[in-house]
Design a protein that fits this description.
By secondary structure, the protein is of the alpha+beta class. The chain is built from ten helices and 19 strands. The protein is 35% helix and 23% strand. The protein binds zinc ion (2 copies). One zinc ion (ZN) binds next to loops.
């Protein structure tokens, strides 16, 4: 925990902020270990406070260490804490705090007698940047979640046949993930048959799977707060030449990227490793989304691997590698695995059959 607080404190210093107010639920869990659904952290160079309401006070003191737990009612605790700690500037998470809550925070600080009260400063991605580098226990939590979606994929794929609806396949996958130990799913399962598979984010519907369909399945498990995310494309019946050709191309784009990725590259370079393979085969225009995204407590995190990403990929980052080809009217193929970047390159964490 201590290295996470040190990380925030370093950033506060470079930004000239006295404190950071953390309202984002995943950031709160990451920094404090507290998994309740309500609570706010206030981090300064010396203190770490966790304010939560009556329901969670006991849980918070058990789950955290080194945090002062404050029983709160809305923002009533903040002016007192800010005066006691003589805060002049408080950073807040501008991508999380709603306008409504921001007004309440501002109003609460007006109660401070000393004039002027602390200044509220918008910040972006402070904790999110720290979260890109996974520590040991996070990597094992991610691997548990990944193993669950692998097992579900490998056990359910062979049972898929013509006549099932997309929704039925989604339910089989979700049930299997729960049976293998998931707390929940990490996002709504995508099952896309035939022409539906040309839409990267098609939702599972009552459409019936037919013989001769490609079927794209994109799903993930949630276990102990950590997400997995995997995509497989299968073919119902004997695959025709077109499917084989497109499948092999997407797979070779994916494997090329996994085999050649190195720490220190930008997300843009990482993305181009796969995109070049598809472009050279004449399918560049059919790959309209980015190659990958970080994953952890959220299913989509930093870094971004996309044509315009300047994020630098580094050792111990975990992210997806998911190229695809989508042809309107025909269908699509996407293959997605999660990898961890080591000093020697990317190592695949998901292992379901391709
Ligand atoms: Zn996915
Ligand atoms: Zn993904």
């Amino acid at each position: 925990m201590e290295f996470k607080l040190e990380g925030i404190r370093r950033i506060l210093e470079t930004k000239g902020l006295d404190a950071l107010l953390i309202t984002n639920a995943q950031n709160r869990q990451y920094i404090s270990n507290f998994v309740g659904t309500a609570g706010t952290l206030l981090i300064t160079q010396r203190e770490a406070l966790l304010a939560t309401d009556f329901r969670y006070v006991e849980q918070a003191s058990k789950q955290t260490s080194g945090f002062e737990i404050i029983r709160s009612n809305g923002w009533d605790w903040l002016p007192q804490a800010a005066s006691k700690l003589s805060l002049k500037t408080i950073g807040f998470e501008s991508t999380d705090l709603s306008v409504h809550s921001f007004e309440k925070v501002k109003d609460s600080l007006l109660q401070i007698k000393s004039n002027p009260g602390p200044l509220l400063v918008p910040t972006v991605d402070i904790v999110e940047t720290l979260r890109t580098i996974k520590a040991g226990e996070e990597i094992s939590a991610l691997q548990r979640s990944i193993d669950i979606s692998d097992q579900a994929m490998d056990s359910v794929c062979p049972t898929i046949h013509a006549g099932l609806t997309e929704r039925e396949v989604a339910w089989r996958m979700e049930k299997a993930m729960r049976e293998y130990g998931a707390d929940s799913k990490s996002f709504d399962t995508i099952v896309a048959r035939g022409p539906n598979s040309a839409m990267p984010h098609h939702r599972a519907s009552d459409d019936i799977i037919q013989l001769g369909d490609p079927v794209v399945i994109d799903m993930g498990a949630l276990r102990d707060g950590y997400c997995s995310d995997i995509t497989r494309t299968i073919f119902v019946g004997d695959p025709d030449d077109k499917f084989k050709q497109i499948y092999d191309l997407v797979l070779s784009a994916q494997l090329t990227a996994i085999e050649t990725m190195q720490p220190g590259m930008t997300g843009q370079t990482g993305d181009s490793l796969a995109r070049t393979v598809l472009t050279e085969a004449g399918y560049g225009d059919y790959f309209g989304h980015s190659l990958g995204h970080g994953i952890g407590l959220d299913v989509h995190e930093l870094p971004r691997l996309s044509p315009n990403s300047q994020d630098v990929i580094s050792e111990n980052m975990v992210f997806s590698v998911e190229p695809g080809i989508y042809i309107s009217g025909w269908g699509g193929v996407r293959i997605e695995d999660l990898v961890i970047l080591t000093k020697d390159g990317a190592k695949q964490l998901s292992k379901a059959k391709k």
